[in-house]
Design goal:
The protein is mainly alpha-helical and 139 residues long. The chain is built from 6 helices and no strands.
């Protein structure tokens, strides 16, 4: 089984490169509409993977509801991250720290709905994250 910590670090790195490339794409005057086929291709690849590799997946009404919610919020992330990074006055040094506040939202949701504990150390970490994002994005 793949170590979740390695997956998290790869995701962090990939998101950083993705954010940079998206901003560079728009800064160079590229047309956002060329991204639509890329997104559609990605959806097709994931669908093909699902059909061919996951032969014994059990879909329930509950899992379909989650899929709809995940798709909705995924689409919100895609649309609004494109709007934010494509704006000519947007600076990645401001936009990305604001995006990083999603970590705090995730922690609070996990505590409220999954029963995960916010320890004193995590609380201090949240405050430090908020302070660092404020300092980074506030200049």
């Amino acid at each position: 089984m793949f170590d979740w910590r390695i997956a998290a670090v790869i995701t962090m790195f990939a998101l950083g490169v993705y954010n940079f490339l998206m901003r560079k794409f728009f800064a160079d005057g590229e047309d956002w509409r060329v991204l639509i086929p890329m997104v559609a291709f990605g959806a097709l690849v994931l669908t093909a993977y699902y059909v061919f590799a996951q032969k014994e997946v059990k879909l329930t009404g509950n899992s379909l509801a989650y899929l709809a919610e995940i798709a909705f919020f995924g689409l919100l992330v895609l649309v609004f991250s494109l709007l934010a990074t494509s704006h000519p006055q947007a600076q990645l040094t401001v936009v990305i720290p604001i995006f990083a506040l999603s970590t705090v939202i995730t922690i609070l949701l996990a505590a409220a709905f999954l029963g995960e504990q916010i320890t004193l150390t995590k609380g201090i970490g949240i405050l430090l994250a908020l302070a660092s994002i404020y300092l980074i994005a506030g200049t």
